[in-house]
Sequence to fold (396 residues):
Amino acid sequence: MLYRKAPKTGDELSILGFGCMRLPLKDGRIDEERATRQLRHAIDRGVNYVDTAWPYHGGESEPFVGRALAGGYRERVRVATKLPAWLVQSRADMHRYLDAQLEKLATSRIDYYLVHSLNGPAWARVAALGVGEFLDRARADGRIGNAGFSFHGAPDEFPRIVDGYPWEFCQIQYNYLDAERQAGTAGLRYAASKRLAVIVMEPLRGGMLGGEPPAPVAALWHEAERPRSPAEWALRWVWDHPEVTVVLSGMNDETQIEENLATAAGGRAGSLTAAETELVARAGAKYREIMKVECTGCSYCLPCPSGVDIPSSFDAFNVWHTFGKPQQANFSYIVRAAGIFTGQPAYASLCSRCMDCEEKCPQSLPIPDLLDQVAALFEGEGFREREAMIRRMLQN
Fold:
């Protein structure tokens, strides 16, 4: 494992962090035995940064992390979690959430504490409620070690938040498709210029950049002199930036964990050749050319008041259009949207255009308009017959 220093504290952080938003599931809940084994294995291999948050896995991620880090593992890692800024109505709420998180995580101190999912308006609101004074007090009394924020806003909002408080670190979405979106490369460099450690989330864009690529992108990867998997290309591109401190991966499969650990062993800044960097840029341009919906699957748009499974709808839409797999897309959409396993219908056509999702979407996607397209694609002629057939197949 390679490590990089947090500029203001000197903490040696593993360049690969373990994200606990997409843990393995069993019967709809965290598969605790398997997830614990995975997390501890990653720590045994050198990972020392573990990231969770209040809403992950319906509130079950933080308690899971607390249990999984028992038996001496807590002392070997820096734990990061986040203040759910959208739920906070007062400074007293901030203290209440932090104290609850300390209890859920079974710890007396959160090493890296973030104000979750900020953009310009969200920062203005929590700043007016006194989040700076709250963080000062929590640091002074030892409940948190380092203060930071995660960002999902427009590029011009990022520097204002960086300059709004003496943060030790920040967390941004960054990958070769998002170099000009949200904080982007300019924000990465600005944060580094202020000596902030930069934690990167969504390096694989919700896993999309790590799976089997569409044929036009696969053809580009085959041009490389040194073969690499799509996930390795994506991770190595992020680590190639010296301003990046930690790259988070929401690892939930043993093979995936081993691949990421192996990739991290070579993730030195500046290690890609000029030809390799240019190849990644071409892959990004090709993805943008063929992709229909730029959804990362973060689920911040949920719960939908009308019950639509928005990320699953967009995932199926992209499987059809971007990856050229209509049969797989149809099957996936029907299983999830019809609620075959959950009993809760989640069709795209249920959208009431309340616009609640658009306000929450970190990508600023026009979600209701896109859901109309999803419904038109999947719920047209023969949809009920296909649904009935799949129900019979899976429920017999």
